[in-house]
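Homework help thread (please don't just give me the answer)

Our assignment gives two proteins as sequence + structure token strings and asks us to describe the second one. The first is just a warm-up. Here they are:
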Amino acid sequence: MNARNSRFSSAARVVLLGIAALTGPSLSYAACTRDDAFNRMMALSQFGMKLQAALPDPLKDPRGYEANYRRVGSFNERLGAVGQPLADAKYDEACTAYDALAKDYNVDLAAQGVRSLAVVEAEGRHPPKTGCDLAESARRSMWLTESFQTHAQAANGSRDGWQTFGKEMEPVGLLMQQDPNRACALIDTIAAKYGFRRTGS
């Protein structure tokens, strides 16, 4: 797995950790609510994916890559670290950390265009009879990444192959929270290109 695809998988895990946090305690008496913390997390996750997508190719522009990689890595580490307070329902602590991260990286949270926790949870209680919700798009994303990894290992896949796959997957992360149906459609298109087929599909 090359560096770019590894970074994509890391971003996807942040999203999945946020989804897992939805199953935690639903009541909070903190100044920062569960909704507040989750919405911040998803907005910052979107921004982090954009930072990763903007990284230059490490072989074509090694100096540019090195100049930006540490900043992106630091952002993802800080974002991932707040996943535990969020899962533990320490919403004040989570919001404080998310706000500090947003300030340090000049992130306009509202401009990230993510859907609110209320919308996501309503969708979870009443999953669409057709199409995808956030959880389904996340499952398909991880399935596709794992399928490509197995395929690449069996075929001794090249760095260029991983890089191509990573570039194809970059828009998926941005779409998963904003428009799960479009994310799933893109996942299915990429899967078809490589001849991957999900069980039961």
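The one we have to describe:
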Amino acid sequence: MSFGRLERSQGPQPMSEINMTPLVDVMLVLVAIFIITAPLLASSIKLDLPKTEAAQPGDAPKFVTVVVDRAGQAFLNDQPVAQPELTAKLLQTAKVNPDTEVQLRADAAVPYGRIVEVMGAAQKAGLNRIGFVADPTAPVAPAAAALRKP
């Protein structure tokens, strides 16, 4: 008696792909549910809000402009002023509205010490919101920027 192998046929192999039909069906049902419920999520409560003059959303922020030119001369709202006069006018502005912003523009050649004097005058007056105004630089091409990096 000899022992030999009997040939067996391979049975059905398991599928390795995901069946997409149920997934698509579920997604379509979810889309339909969201389309129907989306208008319901919007607030449908109508209110007649009270009117007030306390805080208007369209109020423009108040600011004064201080410019220091190349020679160190200060200008307040485009009017030339001396240092003591600048301090007095900034103090008067702070009394009217302490939230006034000081927009400081200075020439690139002005010494740092002069800028600090103007900032100190504004802070002594009680104006603590100081913004520096600068011109944007020209955009640099990416290739030129890569060459400029050290």
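TA reply:
I won't write it for you, but here's a hint about the kind of observation we're looking for: The helical segments are 20-41, 83-96, 112-125, 142-148.
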